[in-house]
Each structure stands twice: as structure tokens, then as C-alpha cells.
Amino acid sequence: MINCKLCYLPLASPDSLYCHQCTSMLPFITHYCSGCALSTPVNINRCGRCQKTPFHFDHAFSLLEYKSLIRPLIHQFKSNQLVNHKPLQLWLFSAYYHHLQSSLPTVIVPIPSSIPSTIKRGHMPAMRLAELLSELSGLAVCAKAFTKHWITPNQKQKSKQSRQQANQFKLHAQYLPQPREGFRVLLIDDVMTTGASANEAAKKLKNAGIAAVDLLTIARTPLNH
Questions:
Q1: 3-state secondary structure of 68
Q2: Of 33, 119, 127, 149, which residue is 20 to 30 A from 102 by alpha carbon distance?
Q3: Beta-strand relationship, 146-148 and 169-171
Q4: Cβ(225)–Cβ(192) under 8 Å?
Q5: What pTM did the predictor assign?
Q6: Cα–Cα distance measured from residue 153 to residue 141, given in angstroms and rounded to the nearest whole number
Q7: How many Cβ atoms are within 10 Å of 100's Cβ, its own excluded?
Q8: Which residues, 6+ apart, have CB-to-CB distance to 199 below 8 Å?
Q9: CB hemisphere CA count around 174 (13 angstroms)
Q10: How far apart are CA 56 and CA 37, in angstroms?
């Protein structure tokens, strides 16, 4: 018998993660700022914060707010405890299709974890998300575009300013397809907190000649969290 990952009651379908009641309580983002992916009362192109300090990526979207019931899902996924990824895969494809259909990407680039973190978890969360989306969308995944430096301070333990100044990644541009007109990279990660990691990756891609970079994450940390 398969149980809901949150309330542990039996599930009607083996392809589900949550029961219907728990799913209805998940904090899906319906309206958002396309510059920073924060939840907003109505869809907006750029909020005041993004107008003041814009990110290097062109468009950002997160499926859920990183709060309440979504925290166990992220924890289970990061620690490689989710055996059944099908609901997560469908959510990703829905986000890809409905929120990026006007600017469909050419290739998916996962934001990498550090090597020690990957060894500890047994997988790289962003790479798994990229593979899940690729399976349904048919998009190619460029897994070798970035590597993360061997030792980097934990992002949770760093101030916002130090995150923004960090140099976490090395870009291996030779693994990217040759940029051409209309070429778009879709960065993918599990959680967007300050956006510093994705911003650094997007900046390096832009400096390498990539014209457009979008960002898709499972969850977005609300302000003041």
C-alpha cells in the first residue's frame, strides 16, 4: 500500500505523491513577477525590486512557494527519498508548457550541486529535474555546462550580499550547442531563495554569447523567509 507523503493516509492511485486533500493545500503559484518568480496578486513583468536590481536571466517561474506543506517534498527530493517522480514530472512539464510556451527553450541546463553534496545525497537534484522535464518535453539536457567549485559555503548560512558576490560555478562553454538566433537556455533548479546562484549562472551564459536565459524552479522562497 502506498501512502500520502504528507498525511500518510492510503492513496487511491500509485502514481500520486499526495492525497487529494493535501494536493489542494499545496501553495501553487498562480500569479507572479516574471523577473524574480515571487508570488504576486496579479501577473507582472517586473516588480519594483526587479526594476531596481534586475537579474541576468530573462524570465523566471516557480511552481510553488517554499513554505508549509512543500518543505517535506523538497527535503524528500533532495535526500533522494522520492521513488515515484511522476507527479513532479507532470508539474514540471505543465510549468514548461504554460509559462514558457511563448519563448520555448533550446536546451536545459541544470544548476549543479557541489561534488561533496552530490556524493552525500547520491544524486544531483537539479540534474534529476532536468532529466524528468526532458523525458516529456524532448528537450536536450546539457549536463556538463557548469561545474560547482569543490568547496563552497552553504548558501543558507550566507548573507544576501555575500551570496550575490559568490563565484560558485565554472562554465564549460565547449559543451553548449553553438549559439544561434533564437537560442534560449532553460536553467533548472529545485529552490530559488535569493536567486544568486541562478543569476551567476545566467550572467556567465550571457557573457558566453547566449542571448536568452530562463529559469524554472520547483519552489520559490517568499520574502522575509
A1: coil
A2: 127
A3: antiparallel
A4: no
A5: 0.84
A6: 27
A7: 17
A8: 55, 56, 57, 164
A9: 0
A10: 13
